[in-house]
Specification:
Number of helices: 5
Strand order of the largest sheet: 1-2-4
Mean pLDDT: 78
Largest sheet: 3 strands, mixed
Distance between the termini: 35 Å
Strand content: 15-25%
Structural class: alpha/beta
Number of strands: 6
Radius of gyration: 16 Å
Order of helices and strands: HHEEEHHEEEH
Amino acid sequence: MSALSALEKALENRWEALWARMFGRDPVELVDALRHECDSNAVVCRAGRVLVPNAYEVELAGPVHEELTRRGVRVGQVLTDRLARHAARHGYEWAGPLAVHVRRSAEVPGGRYRVASSVMPHVSADGFQRAAAPGRG
């Protein structure tokens, strides 16, 4: 393991420990859900080029969202950073500027979350699909 990888892993472990102490929850599950959403929607355009959606919506149950906003944690930025590192490791290209939006939802079961992805509206979904078509790219 390189020194940089070891440092990154140590920083991630510290963040996870802080999250668990502050909120009684481990962010690994939420970060893994974002990574899975990204991986599941990856589109191979040609050898060496893989496009992924650039807009991610994280819906949190009311109590979790309230705790995050009350403490002033910039969870959206932290999740965006983690997802960007994941994509860089896999060589993914975003369909546009990356954004992870965190919001409160009454439809999420207590203490849980929901993750969804899409291509931002100002980025043409048709262009995203054309880039993925065989013989293009």
